[in-house]
Write a structure and sequence with these properties.
Radius of gyration: 20 Å
Helix content: 10-25%
Shape: globular
Bound molecules: pyridoxal-5'-phosphate, 2-OXO-4-methylpentanoic acid
Distance between the termini: 24 Å
Strand content: 25-35%
CATH architecture of the largest domain: Alpha-Beta Barrel
Number of strands: 18
């Protein structure tokens, strides 16, 4: 019950809410939206989602604003991205309008779980599409289930907006060249678990992956993109093996608004020696400052934050993004869907 939730101390975990919304794709078309209060589904033991990884998901957030209204951040971008992921693994793409309607419905039905303004928490929205057809041969399904669950969350890294250390580890790739890295599909996360757990055991919040072709350029940072501040520039890796982060796209715009130059380009590992600030960015991570990047293979340590504090530009970007999400400043880019 919401009265029992300690809004200011939520972690990034699953808490049950009242409803989820679902829609089935059968006979070549999407059906009616269904509302369920069960947090389980029925799935065939031979479904393609279970055997061959036909699964794609999204992550977006709803915020309770200063004016008490609920704002969903960049819903249209997530609608577009899950279509791209679905097409990438041969699933039926969810129409953008259906995604929008279901997202709004899932939030409205669970309105009492949208954390209060000022708690720093938000309602995490997790859309999921899975292949439902029973197959033994490796072939796409004919039937799909698209569902949206929501859950109130706090910060992804337990440190919150505090700098953490990350590491470079060449032993593992998250994705293959020309593989599924640009899509948000479950297999990428399965492939990251071993490296991620090792990094955690060594005291790092995540792994900074290198490009899987040459292991020369920075790619992304666990379940988040990576950016650094170098002089007056916001630099971020350009790569076809990373997820195009909607948070990164938004921070790039905010960086331009602040008068910074944005450089989306290859960034070599050596270049880390000259950066002033660094951070991981994503829906869950928001902008999580990085204090140090340790290259576990070469022994090199790139100390980004000498005083262990978040850098001024990262802090400003974080604050500007949060201000838009919580309705504290005008949404001049039109990023929020405001529920009336
Ligand atoms: N990269 C990966 C691998 C992710 O899982 C995420 C999280 O969604 C991101 C980047 C950040 O993307 P976004 O800002 O759209 O949440
Ligand atoms: C997100 O930031 O929304 C993610 O999906 C990251 C992770 C929790 C998988």
């Amino acid at each position: 019950m919401e009265n029992e939730l300690d809004w200011g101390n939520l972690s990034f975990g699953y808490l049950p809410t009242d409803y989820n919304v679902r829609c089935h794709y059968r006979d070549g078309k999407w059906g009616e939206i269904e509302v369920s209060s069960s947090d389980t589904i029925n799935i065939h033991i031979a479904a393609t989602a279970l055997h061959y990884g036909q699964e794609a998901f999204e992550g977006l957030k709803a915020f309770r604003g200063k004016d008490g209204k609920i704002r969903i951040f960049r819903l249209e971008e997530n609608a577009r991205r899950i279509r791209s992921s679905a097409i990438g693994i041969k699933m039926a793409p969810v129409p953008e309008e259906l995604f929008r309607e279901m997202t709004i419905k899932a939030v409205q039905l669970n309105e009492r779980f949208v954390p209060p303004y000022g708690s720093g928490a938000s309602l995490y929205i997790r859309p999921l599409e899975i292949g439902m057809t029973a197959r033994v041969g490796v072939k796409p399904a004919d039937e799909y289930l698209f569902l949206i669950l929501v859950t109130p969350v706090g910060p992804y890294f337990k440190e919150g907006f505090r700098p953490t250390k990350i590491c470079i580890m060449r032993e593992f790739d998250r994705v293959a060249p020309r593989g599924t890295g640009r899509w948000k599909v479950g297999g990428n996360y399965a492939a990251s678990l071993e490296a991620g757990e090792r990094a955690h055991e060594l005291g790092y919040s995540s792994v900074l992956y290198l490009d899987p072709r040459e292991k020369k350029y920075l790619d992304e940072c666990g379940p988040a993109n990576f950016f650094a501040i170098k002089g007056n520039s916001y630099i971020t890796p350009a790569s076809d093996s990373i997820l195009p982060s909607i948070t990164n796209m938004s921070l790039q715009q905010l960086a331009r608004d602040m008068g910074l130059t944005v450089e989306a380009r290859h960034i070599t590992v050596d270049e880390l020696a000259g950066v002033d600030e660094a951070a991981a960015c994503g829906t869950a991570a928001v902008a999580s400052p990085v204090s140090e990047i340790d290259d576990l293979d070469t022994g090199e340590k790139y100390v980004v934050s000498k005083d262990g504090e978040p850098g001024p530009v990262t802090t400003a970007l974080y604050n500007n993004l949060r201000a838009i999400q919580y309705g504290e400043v005008p949404d001049i880019h039109g990023w929020c869907t405001v529920l009336e």
